[in-house]
Amino acid sequence: MSTLTIDKAGPTRKVKYGSMSRDRAWALRWSYFFLVLFAIFFLTPPLYMLITSLKSSAEISAATNPWWVFHPTLSNYVELLTSNQFLRFFWNSSIVAIVVVVITMLISIPAAFALARMKFWGSATLATGVFLTYLIPDSLLFIPLFKMLAVIQDVTGITLLNRWYVLLFIYPTLTVPFCTWIMIGYFASIPKELDEAALIDGASWLQTLTRIFIPVALPGLIAATIFAFTVSWAQFLYPLVFTTSVDQLVLPVGITTTLIKGDVFNWGQIMTGALLGAAPPLIIYAFLMDYYIAGLTAGATKG
Amino acid sequence: MADVSLRKVVKRYDDVEAVRGIDLDISDHEFIVLVGPSGCGKSTTLRMIAGLEDISDGDIMIGGDIVNDVPPKDRDIAMVFQNYALYPHMTVAENMSFGLRLKHYPKAEIKARVTEAARLLDITDLVDRKPKQLSGGQRQRVAMGRAIVRNPKVFLFDEPLSNLDAKLRVQMRIEIKKVHQKVRTTTVYVTHDQVEAMTLADRVVVMNRGRIEQIGTPNELYHKPATRFVAGFIGSPAMNFIPCRLEDVGGSLQIRLTDRIAFALPAARAARYNALPRTDKLLLGLRPEHLTESHAHHGPGIESFDTVLDVTEPMGMETLVYFGLDGTPVCGRVDPNAGATDGAPMRLAMDLNNMHLLNEETGVVL
Q1: CATH class of B240-359
Q2: pTM, whole model, 2 decimals?
Q3: What is the dihedral of CA B3, B8, B12, B18, to 10 degrees?
Q4: Residues A203, B71: C-beta atoms closer than 8 Å
Q5: Among A193, A200, A302, whose Cβ lies nearest the Cβ of B72?
Q6: Window A:108-137, CB contacts with B under 8 Å
Q7: Alpha helix positions (H), B184-331
Q8: Phi-psi category of B6—alpha, beta or left, where left has phi over 0 and alpha has psi -120 to 50?
Q9: For residue B243, what are the β-bridge partners?
């Protein structure tokens, strides 16, 4: 045992105090440093796409500075936006994404409500199971899925393969599990007394869902919607496998298959198509972010 | 409005019995408070009346009809929750009218009822606000308003004041009492706070471990507790329990507390306790207000003794004194000017006319 000596005289040297404002300034400097680093890292590719999309094919292949446009032209945009083929891809993508979002919400919201609130036998296991299905990568699933659809097509006689609408059945296998999982989390965070109050007020389960849960969990719903839309819009593997005819293609597959002919890459149009394809999700984010108000549940209960 | 009856109501969770056979008759217009420590089954009982919990056994009747299997919305009840449970996306008026709108009441009537309830609760200025713009007390008023507009047969309150600070709680307590005096709806109110129970109730139901210990008016419970649990639960500071035994000395009955302290019982008490076996282990139950400073002249049944105080707590209108009797901690209430000081000797008086005698083993008040 060592003896502890306490210096009753206190520190002889003047204590050097820190400064809260100086600490904060340094924290901010580091934050900005890394934010700028990440911004550069992630914004360079789109910038390069934009620069390239404004060049003619001749300028792209010329040995000039690739980061500068010497003879800007909108010809790539004009060609794509007047091409029926490209508009067809755009149209297919839009229809697929919108319908998939609607289907996903129609399945996920009631499923999440049931799993979060109606405590039935096996509901917890089922909720975990829903999430686990999301963890299986689509690169493992597409062959059995293809086989399944081929069988269904043979049995029913309804043409499914190589039709854009087959994607309406396939994309929800990606979106529904994840959206259900997010919604379960949001619904579970709503205090139980809220649905009990609604129950006593005379609401049915459906009314509790539509008039209490959906409005209260709106931020979560919007997050799920954005996710479902992005997944459907950007999905590449499934449409590549399930659709082949040019008029059935969606945007990501359409751009790569029609603008790359053999070993000839039409870079200007590829970049233009990619930029135009990235626009709708961006616009939707910007629009929905306004509604993405956190703290909507504040005031429901004490807190 | 209606009476509520519980007949041998039992609630089991797997192998745990939360409520173990409760019989309770609540008459029309009555304000009943269920009180007890956490886990005593009071909230479960309330939730069974509401229909939010199934009952495992027994019957619940509202207005004479058995409602065991009737869903909450058809029981014609309204409930106020501890955490208010207001709908966050609706205004105060929308919150209050939600139930009526679901039942498709005419718009004019909804408006009239909401206006009337808002006036009653003094929240007329708040009807267009959202819950998050309200303070805790205001939210609790809205929650009550939501119950009142429905004009139900029964009001159920589940610890409605527990989330409020002490001052607001006293204010809202009076508010609830006023509202009940105006609307006269049968009310079942759950709390763990015995002061709330005493001040609000027509009758208090004291619960412990899933059973009813005693039902009575606040004064009955305070002055004539049936069990040690009730005697100790009701009243603050709690009743003192001092181990004692009965002795016959020269033809009269006396109570012995310690080797040196023994008092002759007042005649009425002696007659009451005379038949008890002298061998029983007994407890003297005495409320702190019946342990005061000794005066030169005192009436019959008031006995003085000397002790040394451990701790004193000046409360302003009185001073609480703590001391030990053979190791048993005892609390008394003396006049602030009686000169009680920490660690000092003091002469105190016991009012044996207000004593209780309990069987130590069974906990029954004799």
Answers
A1: mainly beta
A2: 0.80
A3: 70
A4: no
A5: A200
A6: none
A7: 194-200, 218-223, 228-233, 267-273
A8: beta
A9: B283
